[in-house]
Amino acid sequence: MAAETCASVPGNDSWLEKVAGSARPTFEAVVRGYLSPRHRDDPGHGCLFAALGSDVVRQPRTVRRAFTEGLRSRVDGLGKLLQGRSAAARREKALATIAGLVGALMLARAVDDSKLSDEILKAGAATFGRS
């Protein structure tokens, strides 16, 4: 069942549009939407990577494969929003950004201090939101 869940995550365009809240997402809007209080406060409808990331390592290969493919798809989609760089530089920026976004969201959800949680979201958006 976990593999099916990972495999059923929406593709690049729908993920980017949903997070950015726009049919024409920008890199900055994706970062702001991902690290928003609304996304943090609704883990049941949010990012599968932030919700399950630490658990996937203990799952069977089929689950990890589906998770990997979903991540590759997200990296490719986010990289397409970056302009004026080589393909390798866009991929590197997209990988680093997704890693940072997922980590920031996981921490913001985990702490029991709402002020600290808001600070994590704000710092993450400022750090990762520059294209």
Your description of this structure?
This protein is 73% helix and 0% strand. The chain is mainly alpha-helical and 131 residues long. It has one domain (2-128): Tetracycline Repressor, domain 2 (Orthogonal Bundle).
Percent helix, as a range, is over 70%
Distance between the termini: 36 Å
**Poorly predicted runs:** 1-8
Radius of gyration: 14 Å
CATH class: Mainly Alpha
Structure classification: mainly alpha
CATH topology tier name: Tetracycline Repressor, domain 2
What is the element string, with H for helices and E for strands?
HHHHHHHH
Shape: globular
Name of the CATH superfamily = Tetracycline Repressor, domain 2
Oligomeric state of this protein:
single chain
Strand element count: 0
Based on the structure given, which CATH architecture is correct?
A: Orthogonal Bundle
Number of domains: 1
Which characteristics define this entry?
mainly alpha; 131 residues; Tetracycline Repressor, domain 2
Which secondary structure elements does this structure contain, and how are they paired or packed?
Layout lengths: L1 H6 L4 H9 L6 H8 L2 H4 L7 H9 L4 H20 L6 H24 L3 H15 L3
Helix pairs in contact: 2-3, 2-6, 6-7, 7-8
In short:
By secondary structure, this protein is mainly α. Helices cover 73% and strands 0% of the residues.
